[in-house]
């Protein structure tokens, strides 16, 4: 685990999670084995550090029952990983309603001042549990609210639409995107033949795929991503009135992404980067927050809004078309106690709703209402997964779902059927029970596809991005299609999906991967009248919080003085920016400054900005700066990061004194420029070359 050196790195966790209802309940399940003498699981004291053997060099005896049990347990100590979203990290926190929303829903978690405990798990779809969490992917954002009226799950992704709109295709999508069946690779990414053949057959996913291939697909971390419910859901109020809605989590820290080269290098050097980021931030008392927002739609039975099909999960409703309202706030403030028991064992399901929340006939959502409960039963080897500590509601569970593997409860009484007259569980009254919306449903049985024009929304996203973001997206298509082994699959994707979105986009991608260029004018040349910044919330000039970002302080020949160090770190501490001193070796330097990392233990990819202290070096030292130190700076530069120099001449000597670099002999001036640059623009993509669009597209 990386060392956090800002002075704010103290643990607030114990103060914050004192005694909320869920934490109180979890406390009753804690098992403190620290410092205790070992026992078997039948409670007998034992020592299992050596086998029982027939002599010092003899066979292990069958009679070594305690070690037999130890190994039998070990052989079974994994649950099957999730078939998607296997790699995840999670935290507890609270959700607070901003007001009383009973006009649209009777959901208790949206009553005035209602506060609910939550558990949120972030994940990536494709990578397995041992994979890298920075790979390009859709990130899951699943939240369980432990409310006073039962558990409410909000299971979404970080981008706002989906690849398909019928759950019947979900196994095909996942099979196609995961490793190819004969080879068993590639794992953890979609850059291969089966994925792109599927994406060509299913053009409805064009917008989501473009989102994932844009910089949105490589977020810096999960503190800087959105959550999107994707589907339309239904609120029902006490009068039985239905209001359709889509839900969103919007990060209060704003949105930040990486560049692809950085994401892949981080994956190689620290495949737990994002989970460590959340863990360390919470441990340091920097609690990430999201606003819960909804768009509402009148329920007239048509499930359409301004021409957008609300039953099609591949269609988005941009915020510019229907501005969302904020209903409440999520704060994550406590790390889990035990990874397996909580993060790995938690069961989310879109079907877990409370009274006042319901569903619509979206065929993707309808299958999700079944699939998650089924996954839970499979992963927990039976039907009792919802009784695990992390999954239990804070309200009583009273039902006749009895027995099964690992049933932990001792149900009292002689009845296990309802209704009865012998003292068993009694059904809730129609006023009390879970609302369903009493709509009239008619229709002729058939296998109906969901079809809406698939390219316009992807085109809107394409034209919303600036030329740098477009270049990154073109490069991502090139990377992905460049790894497709069948040239027909590549050519088909370009001709059938990219060309109808935009002819120039298709030609640029084709040019990059050596595929036939679609003829000029053969694809779309439509330029939409409107763009939607909400579809691509990265970039722009708005100032963003810098809390929890990480700055690397390096110093030519390890010469950073205590005075310079103090000036730099005072400003970083004030702004809640973390930092590490990186030198040729860890530990104390001759100047008295303590170095946290060496060029062996870290790399520039782990920092949002770097500062090089050259002014404390002599001229002779400056002329002998080691290559590893120079490369550190060059790499940060090529990733578009703000770079400061306390001193003058080092950046110049590397030829890097260009946009986004700040050299000055005054450390205060440098550090203030760096913090300002991290606030906005964050990165300088203009350092990278752009395609010669003119020559490729005309
Ligand atoms: Fe799913 C897990 C999100 C479509 C079936 N899904 C899973 C998780 C997230 C999502 C965040 C991880 C939950 C966790 O952290 O434990 N899935 C989505 C979104 C979708 C979506 C936003 C479309 C809008 N999913 C989807 C479909 C199906 C599934 C159409 C099946 C018909 N998803 C599953 C699953 C998983 C799952 C197989 C794997 C493990 C689990 O549920 O508990 O049931």
Automatic annotation (TrEMBL):
Domain Catalase core residues, every copy: 39-426
GO molecular function terms attached to this record: catalase activity; heme binding; metal ion binding
SMART domains assigned: Catalase
Active site residues per record: 85, 157
Enzyme Commission number: 1.11.1.6
One GO location term (cellular component): cytosol
EC class name: oxidoreductase
Any one biological process term the GO annotation gives: response to oxidative stress
Gene3D superfamilies: 1.20.1370.20, 3.40.50.880, Catalase core domain (2.40.180.10)
Record keywords: Heme, Hydrogen peroxide, Iron, Metal-binding, Oxidoreductase, Peroxidase, Signal
Keyword Iron: yes
Catalyzed chemical reaction(s): 2 H2O2 = O2 + 2 H2O
Positions that bind heme: 372
Residues in the signal sequence: 1-18
Cofactor: heme
Domain of life per record: Eukaryota
Family indicated by similarity: Belongs to the catalase family.
Function: Occurs in almost all aerobically respiring organisms and serves to protect cells from the toxic effects of hydrogen peroxide.
Name of the protein described by the UniProt record: Catalase
Annotated source species: Hyphodiscus hymeniophilus
């Amino acid at each position: 685990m990386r060392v956090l050196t800002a002075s704010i790195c103290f643990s607030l966790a114990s103060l914050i999670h004192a005694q909320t209802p869920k934490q109180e309940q979890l406390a009753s399940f804690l098992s403190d084995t620290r410092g205790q003498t070992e026992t078997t699981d039948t409670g007998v004291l034992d020592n299992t550090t050596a086998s029982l053997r027939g002599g010092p060099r003899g066979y292990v005896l069958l009679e070594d029952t305690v070690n037999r049990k130890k190994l039998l347990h070990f052989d079974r100590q994994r649950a099957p990983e999730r078939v998607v979203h296997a790699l995840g990290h999670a935290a507890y926190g609270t959700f607070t309603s901003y007001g009383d929303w009973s006009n649209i829903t009777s959901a208790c978690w949206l009553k005035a001042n209602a506060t609910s405990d939550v558990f949120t798990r972030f994940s990536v779809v494709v990578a397995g549990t041992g994979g890298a969490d920075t790979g390009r992917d859709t990130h899951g954002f699943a939240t369980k609210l432990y409310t006073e009226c039962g558990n409410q799950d909000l299971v979404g992704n970080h981008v706002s639409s989906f690849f398909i709109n019928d759950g019947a295709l979900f196994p095909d999508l996942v099979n196609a995107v995961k490793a190819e069946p004969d080879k068993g690779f590639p794992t953890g990414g979609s850059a291969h033949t089966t994925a792109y053949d599927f994406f060509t057959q299913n053009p409805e996913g064009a917008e989501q795929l473009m989102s994932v291939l844009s910089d949105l697909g490589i977020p810096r971390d999960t503190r800087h991503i959105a959550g999107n419910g994707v589907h339309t859901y239904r609120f029902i109020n006490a009068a039985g009135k239905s209001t359709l809605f889509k839900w969103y989590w919007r990060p209060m820290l704003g949105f930040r992404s990486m560049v692809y080269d950085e994401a892949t290098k981080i994956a190689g050097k620290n495949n737990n980067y994002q989970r460590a980021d959340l863990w360390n931030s919470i441990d340091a008392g920097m609690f990430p927050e999201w606003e819960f927002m909804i768009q509402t739609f009148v329920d007239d039975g048509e499930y359409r809004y301004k021409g957008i099909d609300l039953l099609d999960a591949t269609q988005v409703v941009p915020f510019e078309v229907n501005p969302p309202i904020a209903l409440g706030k999520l704060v994550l403030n406590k790390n889990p106690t035990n990874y397996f028991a909580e993060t790995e064992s938690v069961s989310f399901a879109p079907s877990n709703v409370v009274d006042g929340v319901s569903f619509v006939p979206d065929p993707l959502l309808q299958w999700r209402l079944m699939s998650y409960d089924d996954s839970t039963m499979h992963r927990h080897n039976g039907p009792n997964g919802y009784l695990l500590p992390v999954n239990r509601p804070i309200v009583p569970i009273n039902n006749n779902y009895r027995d099964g593997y690992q049933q932990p409860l001792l149900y009292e009484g002689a009845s296990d059927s309802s209704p009865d007259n012998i003292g068993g569980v009694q059904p809730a009254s129609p006023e009390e029970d879970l609302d369903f919306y009493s709509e009239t449903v008619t229709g002729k049985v058939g296998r109906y596809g969901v079809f809406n024009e698939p390219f316009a929304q992807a085109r809107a996203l394409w034209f919303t991005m600036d030329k740098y973001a477009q270049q990154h997206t073109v490069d991502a298509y090139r990377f992905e299609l460049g790894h497709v082994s069948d040239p027909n699959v590549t050519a088909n994707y370009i001709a059938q999906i990219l060309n109808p979105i935009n002819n120039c986009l298709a030609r640029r991608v084709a040019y990059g991967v050596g595929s036939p260029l679609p003829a000029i004018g053969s694809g779309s040349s439509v330029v939409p009248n409107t763009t939607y910044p909400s579809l691509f919330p990265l970039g722009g000039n708005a100032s963003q919080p810098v809390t929890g970002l990480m700055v690397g302080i390096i110093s030519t020949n390890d010469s950073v003085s205590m005075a310079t160090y103090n000036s730099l770190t005072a400003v970083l501490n004030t702004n809640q920016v973390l930092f590490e001193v990186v030198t040729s070796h860890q530990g104390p330097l001759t100047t008295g400054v303590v170095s946290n990392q060496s060029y062996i233990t870290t790399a520039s990819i782990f920092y949002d900005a770097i500062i090089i202290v050259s002014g404390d070096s002599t001229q002779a030292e400056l002329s002998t700066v080691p290559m590893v130190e120079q490369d550190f700076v060059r790499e940060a530069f090529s990733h578009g990061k703000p770079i400061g120099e306390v001193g003058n001449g080092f950046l110049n000597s590397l030829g890097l004194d260009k946009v986004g670099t700040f050299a000055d002999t005054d450390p205060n001036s440098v550090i203030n420029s760096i913090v300002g640059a991290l606030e906005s623009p964050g990165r300088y993509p203009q350092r990278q070359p752009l395609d010669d669009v003119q020559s490729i597209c005309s």
